[in-house]
Amino acid sequence: MSARFATEGHALSTVWLPESLDAEMAPPASDMTCDVAVIGGGLSGLSTALHLKRFEPKLDVALFEAGRIGYGASGLSSGQCAPRIGPSIERQVKTLGEDFARTAYLYSVDAMEYAGKLVRGLAIDCDCRPTGQWQVALRERDAGVLARRADVYRALGLEVPLVATEEVRRLMPGSGAIVNALRYPALQLNPGRLCIAMKRAAHDLGVRIFERARVTRFDIASGKLDVGTANVSATRSVVTVDGMAASLGILRRHVLPIVVHAAVTTPLTPAQRDAIGWRPDSPGLFDARPAFNFMRPMPEGSVLIGGEYRYGPGIASTGGADATVAARLARQLQAFFPSLSGLPIARSWYGTPGCTLNEWPIVTPLDDRSRHWHLGAWNGHGIALSLAAGHDLAAHMTGLRPERPLPWRLPRQPGIPAPLARLAIPLYLAYLRHASRLTHPKGTLKCS
Fold this sequence. Notes:
Layout: E1 3-4, E2 32-39, H1 43-55, E3 61-64, E4 80-81, H2 89-96, H3 98-121, E5 129-130, E6 133-136, H4 140-155, E7 162-163, H5 165-171, E8 181-184, E9 187-188, H6 191-205, E10 208-210, E11 217-219, E12 224-226, E13 231-239, E14 256-265, H7 270-276, E15 284-287, E16 294-297, E17 303-311, E18 318-319, H8 323-336, E19 345-351, E20 354-355, E21 362-365, E22 372-376, H9 382-397, H10 405-408, H11 418-435, E23 438-440, E24 443-445
Parallel strand pairs: 1-19, 2-3, 2-13, 3-10, 6-15, 13-22
Antiparallel strand pairs: 4-9, 5-9, 6-8, 7-8, 11-12, 12-13, 14-17, 14-19, 14-20, 15-16, 16-17, 18-19, 21-22, 23-24
Helix pairs in contact: 1-6, 1-9, 2-3, 3-9
Organism: Paraburkholderia phymatum (strain DSM 17167 / CIP 108236 / LMG 21445 / STM815)
Protein name: FAD dependent oxidoreductase
Domain FAD dependent oxidoreductase: 35-395
């Protein structure tokens, strides 16, 4: 049976934060003003707030988090900090050209490296280490896609090499279904601890932090916020709520809340670890199917696996997954490592990141005077991009640098009306699940 847990106003215990590491910050007790209001206490909001105070210490920066920092979607990710921004590299080359695709990828590599630099600079204890990340093929058709993708990277002068079948078997002898892989640079870390440490660092710099302070109304014209316990008047603001943007009436047609489920197994035995050849310092994995799984080894010897995507308007940003979803994730793990059949699931949960129809994030002003900004919709690449973009937006807002070409100047975001999205997005996700099926001699395995 999967041990479920909740994170909003209930038991504060997650796979990354088994027990609370810090004191709770109270919501505002009375009406207040501030120079900059940061709405959302995930990595985007924390990075923006921290860097605003670094770059302009006299600014009165206030951050409002609906729940507890470290227990939302940022703190419940898989903790894989990898490059990539936007759709596949071959699609970028086809639609936007080689120069744009190369610049976009290099920006994401810089973002990943900046994340590591920030962790080291703040002396953050979040088990951050370079491990790499593989995109793997479980089907011959996907193996061909990865081989062609490696050719595109090579033609652009980018180092994303193809790992042949023989090398996969040597490094991961128990991964019998993996045909080949692309090797990306990447870090693995504890995202919950990262959030807590950034909260402390921002607070030490003078950021006013309010928890359990859900913003229920935000008026862009006046800069006024309603947080339930108080009314807030902000000269400028940054909205960093990712998949919850529609709850504030912002970018309703553009930011799609996609529920992503994840689970952690019980620890593997030494024999199981030896059989699959996958250890805590091994690369994380995600596969090349449209509705892909992602996974990583955990420091204590268990395995984290994610997938099972659903459209989630009106759903809480985080929560516990039901036993049916956990069982499906356990079966999907077998597609990668058959010897782990029957491995129990210890915990399962979901988060609701923001996604877009064209897979590009949305970093944009919300008004004509660029007083209020949206920062988010990372499409699953949130750790590196959110930390770097928070730094860059803070530098822009304080006049230290102009807007960077990425991720600010991206293709125009297509939108979809909410009533149509409620019909079309679930159907589209169902199609992706169908297109991602794996067929084995004993039958068809439905993944994600």
